Amino acid sequence: MQSKEAEIERLNDTEARALIAECPVALLPIGAVEAHGDHLPAGTDNILARRLAAALVERIAGSVPVMLLPLLPFGQVWSLADQAASISISNETVSQTIVEIGRSLKAKGIVTIAMVNAHYGNVTAIRDAQRRLREEGVKLALFNYPGAAEPTRAVREKPAAHPAYMHACEIETSYMLHMAPEAVRMDQAIANYPEFPDDFAEIPYRWSEFSASPVLGDATAASAEKGRIILDAVLARMAELVAALYARQSEKD
């Protein structure tokens, strides 16, 4: 199955009914419109989510039936909401949108959804939606670059700016160089290692309060090869997870 054969937007009524009859796993990519510095576009998370989901469809072609849903292009962007390129919606809106999509899919007999999320700011909302849909008989899985940790450690050359955060840095820029090189301006890439507040883990901060740039780390160290190595592992792990979801979807919780 090619991605265009799984995209609900491209299907006519007969094709959609045939795909639904296979009880596919629905793939729902979600990103955000968020500042990523001058070397990456505000739609970086959207580009990555959309292209990763399409690549996943291609990888599992012939083994697992999937329905590829349109991208959800807006997310919760509180930390960088004051930046010119950021557009944020609330956690409540993100969560409610996911829940209503889940209900609509369930009405058609699709009860397993995998979200391909490229924006960590969406996690709180997605977790809420997972629990709400679970109560309604819909299994919602969250894919936040699963399988990325080990290859990231292997290819990383420059230190992370913060143990819990990466943004527009060596790693995310490498993702883009691999998945969407035409959107990257490496001549504008910078290294930025701000001093995080001592109580950063306890108190929410707009990133502009301690950093002049949304880049956290060294984007100049990025390469397409690093992105390929990491995302190959991510796609392999997502393929395993989708296959397991499909195999288990008839089981009762």
UniProtKB/TrEMBL annotation:
GO terms for molecular function: creatininase activity; hydrolase activity, acting on carbon-nitrogen (but not peptide) bonds, in linear amides; metal ion binding. Coiled coil: none annotated. Its cofactor is Zn(2+). InterPro entries: Creatininase-like_sf, Creatininase/forma_Hydrolase. Its EC number is 3.5.2.10. It is an enzyme of class 3 (hydrolase). One of its GO terms (biological process) is riboflavin biosynthetic process. Keywords: Hydrolase, Metal-binding, Zinc. It holds the Pfam family Creatininase. SUPFAM superfamilies: Creatininase. Belongs to the creatininase superfamily. This is Creatinine amidohydrolase.
